[in-house]
Task: structure prediction
Amino acid sequence: MKIFKYITLCIFAAAGNTTECFGQTENLRDSLKAATEILAYHPDSTDLRLKKVNWNIRLAQWQYAKDDLDKILYRQPANPAALFYRAYVNEQLRRYNFARLDYRNLLTIVPGHYEGMLGLALLNQKDKHYTEALDQINLLVQMYPDSASAYAARAGIERERGMKDLAIFDYEKAVAIAPKDKDTLLDLATLYAETANKEKAAATLRRLQTLGVPRGQLIDLYRKIK
Result:
């Protein structure tokens, strides 16, 4: 099941194309303006308001998004999409207890909701509720044993907690399921390098290059395993 990606991140590096990034932001603003104008004629439309929320989120306009989600949930307190979006927005606003409540309400309405379970696990990790985070992510893996992203998410939690051997195992499981996922391969290569698994790190870096990642982007990791 696909994890929703809400925000297009603009990375400004020395060799980056800031014009492209600026243009992308301008396109998002144009889409938001159009959505806002249409919503003005249909203020009771949940679908249109959710579309506007989507553009607010992509532009990191968290408070505007929350205000619209509050309006939806006032009328439809059991709307799964609105609960999911507001949980994410509350998290960005560092309203962790409110975000946790929204995730829990979502999971009560839609038990086993993949993104809701994942979001709650990652929120608990961020908010230092470590036991709850591991319990939630373990349950997610049990319920979705064929999900590469579930294993990768658990690996990330384990890595943050210093459980590097467990993290390597889970990253390897994720890669076995999704062998062309560059982000997971890069995380695995990095962890191999951190644990002095030089041969495995080098093999994983070569694998990334075959998938189109330029060697120059991997140079720091290559230096670590010399």
Q: What stands out?
A: The chain has twelve helices and no strands. The radius of gyration is 20 Å. Residues 18-41 form the longest helix (24 residues). Confidence is low (pLDDT under 50) at residues 1-23.
